[in-house]
Amino acid sequence: MAGNTKVNEFMAMIIAKNQGETEFHQAVKEVVESLIPFLEENPEYQFSKILDRITEPERVIMFRVPWVDDQGEIQVNRGYRIEMNSAIGPYKGGLRFHPTVNLGILKFLAFEQVFKNSLTSLPLGGGKGGSDFDPKGKSDNEVMRFCQSFMTELQRHIGQNTDVPAGDIGVGGREIGFLFGQYKRIRNEFTGVLTGKGLQWGGSLIRPEATGYGAVYFAEEMLKTRGDSFKGKTVAVSGSGNVAQFAVEKVIALGGKVVTLSDSNGFIYDPDGIDAEKLSYVLDLKNTRRGRISEYAKKYNVAYTEGQRPWSVKCDVALPCATQNEIEKHEAEALVANGCVVVCEGANMPSTPEAVEVFLEARILYGPGKAANAGGVAVSGLEMTQNSMRLSWTREEVDARLQQIMKDIHGTCMKYGKDDSGFVNYVNGANIGGFIKVADSMMAQGFV
Ligand code: NDP
Ligand code: 2IT
Questions:
Q1: For a substitution probing ligand 1, which of 243, 245, 325, 331 has the most ligand atoms within 8 Å of its CB?
Q2: Please, what is the average pLDDT of the chain?
């Protein structure tokens, strides 16, 4: 097919130019597959070489992050910020601290962020950053010294109207606090340069909850298209961090039963369901004690499977909320075979391309991360608005806006993703729906 040839030609260029960046290739390929047919019908984008430009970061910053550990030994990590696209607003996206972080992973995340942020309808460009620093097993003081060193360099590149980082894997309220403190100290200004801040110093209500809640709101919208809801549904969740925790809370609130959680060591299966009391144990375990999910199994006497992910469990809905490529083809097949009808991604790119194919072929409701997890960055955008106005909205106000944004993103996916048979391909919907505003803005702004 002509479309396939074009995708292959374009991907050959991307792979040659960005060698070894496999996750970046994966993310670009998915978008290009959605976009090529659309671009053929809209040639003005091709003349402007939008695809070539949108896949090239506006700027990549890499830097040394030296810090001293509690034993007095010097440690050296690598810091990054990918400033991907600023056509519709300042660069916006999280910081990831995890030993696996490399350029390719951050470029995939920054690339997806451009489309995701556009889908929110807020004026947010796309970026991502982080470090190969591993916060696990580090003392609070070590984390603080690392964050201070990281920000000592990053601060010269960011600003409330330039680039506004937030959290991601390994970066939560504690890290944002240390990073904000150092930015303020060096720049001598109190501005909304980061989101996910504490409530007493410029943070927004609902920001910690936003990604998990938003993903569940999105799944609920998908279910509605088939006259269904979360009520009585059995739900498998992966991860046990920020996104997973609040996804579980919202599923419980909507009448569903969550039976799994995981971390990088394994997963727990609780057939009775994780209730509010068990969830508060998880919050304490993960956020305060920074323990392992296996402890849940001991405490509640349920099964724990080491080295496995939860997708072999029977469920109606799967909410992957841990990391990229955590659902492989055989796991997708197991989900479908066990009757799973909704896969809604709280994490970024948790399904491999082969897994996505399984979901689309089975015609289940598959919500890709760049649409389904946009609630986090959306409320970050609302935090920026509140900071600019120097006031704070109530919980109800922020939550209502979040719900409306997720509904609107779902509507955009329907608009651009529905095929002739009435099936909604949310991958195409999100990719095309996210692309148009950015591409039009790039064209209006000349060849920059
Ligand atoms: P957290 O650091 O709070 O939690 C991450 C969770 O995922 C932990 O349970 C962690 O287990 C697990 N995990 C991380 N890396 C791996 C890995 N390589 N293999 C298996 N499990 C892993 O991060 P978040 O909850 O914030 O982020 C989770 C996902 O959601 C990520 O994909 C992130 O990009 C995405 N996301 C986050 C947003 C946010 O606002 N925070 C917004 C939109 C998307 P362990 O404790 O063992 O490391
Ligand atoms: O992947 C993401 O959207 C995030 N980690 C949140 C980004 C943000 O700026 O809030």
A1: 243
A2: 97
Residue 101 Cα to ligand 1 midpoint, Å, equals: 12
CA of 81 to the centre of ligand 1 (A): 19
Ligand 2 pocket residue status of 241, Cβ below 6 Å? no
Q: In whole angstroms, what is the distance from residue 364 CA to residue 159 CA?
A: 42
Alpha-carbon distance of 129 to 415, in angstroms, equals 32
Q: Is the pLDDT of residue 1 over 60?
A: no
362 DSSP assignment: T
Do both 234 and 345 map to the same domain? yes
Query: CA 314 to CA 234: how far, in whole Å?
Result: 8
In angstroms, what is the span from residue 377 Cα to ligand 2's centroid?
5
* 379 inside domain: no
Residues 183 and 226 in one domain: no
Q: Evaluate: CB of 264 within 6 angstroms of ligand 1.
A: yes
- Residue 240 near ligand 1, beta carbon < 6 Å: yes
Q: Does the CB atom of residue 323 touch ligand 2 within 6 A? A: no
438 and 339 in a common domain = no
List pLDDT tens digits, range 5-54.
999 999 999 999 999 999 999 999 999 999 999 999 999 998 889 999 99
User: DSSP characters for 148-217?
Assistant: HHHHHHHTTT-BTTTEEEE-BTTB-HHHHHHHHHHHHHHH------SSS--GGGT--TTHHHHHHHHHHH
The CATH number assigned to the domain holding 130 equals 3.40.50.10860
User: Is residue 394 in a domain?
Assistant: no
168 pocket-lining for ligand 1 (C-beta < 6 Å): yes
In testing the pocket of ligand 2, which one of 124, 377, 382 has its CB within 8 Å of the most ligand atoms?
A: 377
Domain that holds residue 433: 1-55+427-448
CA-based max dimension of the chain = 65
pTM to 2 decimals?
0.98
Q: Are residues 367 and 439 in the same domain?
A: no
Residue 422 domain-assigned (yes or no): no
